[in-house]
Write a structure and sequence with these properties.
CATH superfamily of the largest domain in chain B: Class I glutamine amidotransferase (GATase) domain
Strand order of the largest sheet of chain B: 17-16-18-19-25-24-23-21
Number of domains of chain B: 5
Largest sheet of chain A: 6 strands, mixed
CATH architecture of the largest domain in chain A: 3-Layer(aba) Sandwich
Distance between the termini of chain B: 61 Å
Radius of gyration of chain B: 39 Å
Strand content of chain A: 15-25%
Distance between the termini of chain A: 51 Å
CATH class of the largest domain in chain A: Alpha Beta
Order of helices and strands of chain A: HEHEEHEEHHEHEHEEHEH
Keywords (chain B): Membrane, Transmembrane, Transmembrane helix
Number of strands of chain A: 10
Strand content of chain B: 25-35%
Radius of gyration of chain A: 23 Å
Number of helices of chain A: 9
CATH architecture of the largest domain in chain B: 3-Layer(aba) Sandwich
Oligomer: heterodimer
CATH topology of the largest domain in chain A: Rossmann fold
Protein name (chain B): Aerotolerance regulator N-terminal domain-containing protein
Organism (chain B): Planctopirus hydrillae
InterPro entries (chain B): Aerotolerance_reg_N, Class_I_gatase-like, Double_TM_dom, Ig-like_fold
Helix content of chain A: 25-40%
Largest sheet of chain B: 8 strands, mixed
């Protein structure tokens, strides 16, 4: 079966997003030189400090100029720049199947994952993919190879939303599997056990991961602009209700706001990038906004 | 359905609409069943909201449902026209109803206001009634009476349906169907309507009185109020429909008369023209033109200023060169009510006016004094005197003379007395003066006859002689208010004060001097300073007798030597004559009744009567009188086939009878009732000698019809009493015919309630529904 990957990679989005660089918030481990700081200059190093030579140090790193002035052996130490290890965690539960304006949350989440994958791979960062519902369904190991994009897109297209969400276990598994610090990008509607979600996010942060959270919610879920007698049939066996939605809108929005505020506070508390995205918004605009926000945070940390 | 009919103006709508009350509930239930399905992810929050608001939502939904049900109910009540008081129901209900319309067709309905008249408005109301009634066929009946002839209905108990509406549209066109020029008797009309309604026991009965409601006809009319009350007690609905809101300004010619009976060729005839301002503002510089036989004369009467509600008189002298009938008119510029802007007068101009002077003393000179006073120059006064002895009374037909003077005649043979009495009874004028030939016993026996004779009083035994008191300044003669003294009265005219009376018959003992106490219609027109009567006047039949208790010549007094004597004699004669045969002045609607002596006249009578286009000729054939009842003429010829007007005034046997020698036996009578148009009516009789005699009658609109003041609604209601069955409407407002007034007070309340309900429903709906602010999104 031929997969049409281009539906996950809108050309205009790729063109605009690729001009930007994504910066890791913290220094993470990696074995490939990334393009960060000097991406197109080969072995680029940035001087950090001098240290006295000790036995076993590479003789090539002795600073002879310093020796001629001080008559002591110093070796130069450089700030090492490494690759960004990014794990894309995409929610494929049944609730992601909801969409009110021609595009489901699942489709939008996949698009986000695909765009980010391409962007990261073009920067020679390592990317892995985890899709899940009540368990991990697809797992693409971390790699920065050129074939990785294909593998990721294949992984994204394999699964259709069908089951419930179990974020707590999933995030714990991801944390366990990623022993090295990296960037965890979670794309989900977060319609799951709230405490489990918090626990999983907290765990990721404790493990030193930088976490970005794309909270995908549909316009109908955020604004609840239904009218007329409606029977709401809950996805993921969440019940059903016949009502006049206009009369319940106020209460619904209040409950939704409470929930979002709770998530937002939790993310702020653990320094997690949190962003609500709507499938009705342009994908490139969402990412552009997000990456500008990331860059601002990174630069402020460098200073 | 019956109880619905008693509560709703449109019971069928109420019945059909009753089901609509359940519509909000049905819609609500349908909505509960018919819903769209949405697969939704964020059920958690929805269920939370539903759980928290369940009770509130239930109450609000029920309240909203109740409000919507009440809105439908209020709408239904408004459309079906809830009427709590059944008496307010409109005219046309589902039940059978007999409508009797009495429409005022008096002359005053011709008053024009803007583009319409009271008459046209009234006809419009009838057409509207019929049109509304036709919407409920088989249930409504209509009778239309004209107030001028209520005994001859215009429509009698007709079913109101579309054909009738179409018929009325053509029959009641104000362009072709005009009101009368007469005054109408509303009491008679209401009684006729009452007879019709009270005889109709079935169904609902309604009386509609369409009139301009002039104050003169309706203010303080207790008989009318009683008739209305009787109808109301019989459960007849009464609707008084006013076709004129208020009276406009009106100038009317209310007088054109004079001593036309004494009109003679070449002698100036003094006429009095009067204009009354019936408006509320002063009118100045009013000019009236005078027409003689249709030709405008150079004479224009100018009234400088006429105060509101007053009549201003002007005298004008007209001179007619030749004898014969003259048609005199006085005209004003037409105003909003033109029928009283012209007044007609017929003048029979004689070559000379014959006066017979009978002197009882052949050697006396009384007759010559009188003759000199009356006709010293016949060309100047128009009188032609004949002096003779009493024997002439049996030799000549007395009707040849317009007035007879009986001077110093103490006794008459029975036949002469009989002729004389018949002459006076038919309208002749008699002037009696006493003298030495008069013996009281014989005079009283012949002329007084205990009040049955010609003399106004019985004479005392002998004349009373007065000694002239030269020291006294008090005049002997005290003139009363009488046309004969009209010129001589006043401080500026001392002639009468110079008259001295030396001898005077006094009344018989026991005869009451005071006219009011006596109460026998004899009027004292001049007195002696002692209080004794000098001159008296007595109506006798259609004529009049004047008795001078002294001599006509300067025997017992010196009056004949006084300049005032001539003036007095001329004015006395004019007043005597004008009181008898000046009957040609009539009001419209009064029939022309002729009683002909077949020995003198043929049965052919030709009338020339006014018409809209001028004059038209009607030929009638007189028929023998059937006992005491007069038979109506049978018109011959196409001109006479028009509608006749009712006989509103009793015909007088003496009225315009040209025969002066009634000898009993069969008489030919003819009656023309069609005298509605004002103008000059000409009657042409053919004698057995195949000569023709003509007589003119001037018909004018009744003066009362010029009083256009409209009775205010409050006064009308007060006059008619606070009767619940009686309602007063304006012709322009036909809402009561359509029943729009029924339940109007409730309608206002319902409308207010509906507005409140709608506002409450909108507020609650808004509260329960979602209305995002522009550009606002939830984050």
């Amino acid at each position: 079966m031929t997969q049409d990957f281009r539906r996950f990679l809108p050309p205009e989005a790729v063109a605009r997003v690729s001009r930007l660089e994504i910066l890791a918030r913290n220094v993470v481990e990696g074995f490939l030189n990334g393009m960060h700081r000097s991406p197109y200059f080969g072995q680029s190093v940035e001087f950090a400090q001098h240290r006295e030579y000790v036995s076993g140090d590479d003789l090539r790193r002795i600073d002879w100029k310093a020796w001629s002035k001080t008559d002591k052996y110093y070796v130069k130490q450089y700030e090492e720049e490494t690759n960004l290890r990014t794990t894309l965690v995409v929610d494929l539960s049944e609730s992601m199947q909801f969409g009110s304006k021609g595009k489901t949350k699942h489709e939008f989440a996949v698009q986000i994952a695909a765009v980010l994958s391409l962007l990261l791979l073009k920067q020679h960062d390592a990317v892995s993919l985890v899709t899940f519902d009540d368990a991990i369904r697809t797992q693409i190991p971390m790699s920065s190879k050129k074939t990785q994009l294909h593998d990721i897109l294949m992984g994204l297209s394999n699964e259709q939303p069908a089951r419930k969400t179990n974020l707590s276990d999933i995030l714990a598994q991801v944390a366990d599997q990623e022993s090295r610090k990296g960037l965890i990008i979670l794309v989900s509607d977060l319609l799951a056990d709230r405490e489990g979600l918090k626990k999983g996010l907290r765990l990721l942060r404790f493990r030193g991961h930088d976490v970005m959270l794309f909270h995908v919610l549909d316009d109908a879920e955020l604004d609840f602009e239904f009218s007329g007698p409606t029977k709401f049939e809950g996805l993921e066996d969440s019940g059903e209700l016949v009502c006049d939605p206009r009369s319940l809108r106020e209460g619904y929005l209040a409950a939704m706001k409470t929930y979002l505020d709770d998530i937002r506070k939790h993310c702020a508390k653990f320094v997690i990038d949190y962003q609500i995205v709507r499938p009705s918004e342009n994908l490139d605009a969402v990412l552009l906004h997000y990456m500008n926000h990331r860059m601002g945070m990174h630069q402020s940390q460098r200073k | 359905m019956t109880w619905l009919s008693s509560l709703f103006f449109n019971p069928s709508i109420a019945l059909m609409g009753a089901g609509l009350i359940a519509v909000p509930l049905i819609i609500h239930l349908i909505n509960r069943v018919r819903y769209r399905r949405v697969q939704f992810a964020a059920m958690e929050f929805l269920l939370q909201a539903e759980q928290r608001n369940r009770q509130r939502l239930l109450i609000e939904q029920l309240l909203l449902l109740l409000l919507r049900t009440l809105i439908v109910l209020a709408l239904l009540l408004l459309i079906a026209r809830l009427v709590l008081d059944p008496s307010q129901f409109a005219l046309f209900r589902e039940s059978r109803t007999h409508h009797v319309v009495l429409v005022d067709d008096s002359a005053s309905t011709r008053e024009r206001r803007g583009e319409t008249t009271a008459w046209a408005e009234g006809l419009g109301v009838i057409r509207k009634l019929a049109a509304e009634g036709a919407r409920r066929p088989q249930t409504q009946r209509l009778t239309v009476l004209l107030a001028s002839r209520p005994d001859k209905p215009l429509l009698t108990d007709r079913d109101v349906n579309q054909p009738l509406v179409e018929e009325l549209a053509s029959r009641l066109d104000p362009v072709s169907f005009k009101p009368t020029h007469q005054r109408v008797d509303f009491l008679k009309g209401i009684q006729s309507a009452s007879d019709l309604l009270l005889a109709d026991k079935a169904g609902v009965r309604e009386l509609h009185v369409i009139s301009d409601y002039r104050s003169r006809d309706w203010n303080d009319q207790k008989p009318l109020a009683q008739a209305m009350e009787t109808l109301a007690e019989a459960d007849v609905g009464i609707h008084l429909i006013r076709t004129t809101p208020q009276a406009g300004p009106n100038l009317a010619i209310t007088r054109l008369d004079g001593a036309v009976s004494t009109a003679a060729a070449g002698v100036p005839l003094r006429l009095t023209a009067g204009i009354t301002n019936f408006g509320t503002e002063v009118v100045t510089d009013v000019r009236a033109s005078i027409y003689d036989n249709g030709v405008k004369t150079p004479t224009t009467v100018i009234f400088d200023r006429i105060e509101p509600g007053t009549e201003v008189l002007h005298e004008v002298d007209l001179q007619f060169p030749s004898p014969g009938y003259r048609r005199v008119e006085i005209r004003l510029d037409a105003d909003g009510y033109p029928v009283d802007n012209v007044r007609h007068l017929s003048v029979n101009v004689s070559a000379a006016i014959p006066v017979l002077i009978v002197d009882g003393d052949p050697a006396g000179d009384a007759a010559s004094y009188v003759a000199d006073a009356l006709a010293a120059d016949p060309a100047a006064t128009g009188f032609q005197t004949t002096i003779d002895n009493p024997d002439i009374l049996r030799r000549r037909p007395l009707d040849d003379y317009r007035c007879i003077y009986l001077l110093n005649v103490g006794e008459l043979p029975p036949d002469s007395l009989d002729y004389l009495e018949k002459y006076v009874r038919r309208g002749g004028a008699l002037m009696m003066a006493l003298g030495d030939s008069v013996r009281s016993e014989a005079f009283n026996r012949v002329f007084h006859r205990e009040g049955e004779g010609l003399s106004p009083l019985p004479l005392g035994n002998a004349p009373l002689e007065f000694v002239t008191d030269v020291t006294s300044s008090e005049p002997d003669l005290k003139a009363g208010k009488h046309p004969a003294f009209a010129i001589l009265q006043g401080d500026d005219n001392p002639f009468l004060d110079a008259v001295h009376i030396q001898k005077l018959f006094e009344p018989a003992v026991g005869w009451e001097v005071d006219d009011i106490v006596r109460g026998d219609n004899v009027k004292t027109i001049a007195k002696h300073k002692s209080g004794r009567p000098v001159m008296l006047e007595k109506p006798y039949g259609a004529g009049k007798v004047t008795l001078l208790l002294t001599t006509a010549q300067p025997a017992w007094n010196d009056w004949a030597l006084n300049p005032s004597y001539v003036v007095f004699q001329l004015d006395l004669l004019k007043s005597l004559i004008s009181s008898d045969k000046n009957e040609a002045l009539r009001v419209t609607g009064e029939p022309i009744l002729l009683s002909l002596d077949p020995a003198l006249y043929t049965d052919q009578v030709e009338l020339s009567i006014p018409d809209i286009d001028g004059q038209r000729t009607v030929r009638l054939q007189a028929s023998p009188q059937d006992g005491q009842t007069s038979a109506s003429s049978k018109p011959r010829g196409s001109e006479a086939s028009t509608t006749t007007r009712p006989d509103t005034t009793p015909a007088s046997p003496q009225n315009s009878a040209p025969n002066q020698n009634p000898a009993g036996g069969i008489r030919l009578v003819v009656e023309e009732k069609e005298t509605d148009l004002p103008g000059i009516y000409s009657v042409r009789l053919t004698t057995q000698n195949q000569t023709t005699e003509e007589k003119l009658y001037a018909y004018n609109v009744p003066l009362e019809e010029s009083e256009l003041a409209v009775i205010p609604v409050d006064s009308l209601r007060k006059t008619m009493g606070n009767n619940e069955k009686l309602s007063i409407h304006e012709a322009q407002d036909v809402s009561w015919i359509e029943g729009e007034e029924a339940g109007s007070e409730l309608r206002t309340s319902l409308l207010a309630a509906l507005v409140i309900l709608l506002l409450a429903e909108q507020w609650l709906s808004y509260r329960l529904s979602y209305h995002p602010a522009k550009g606002q999104v939830a984050r």
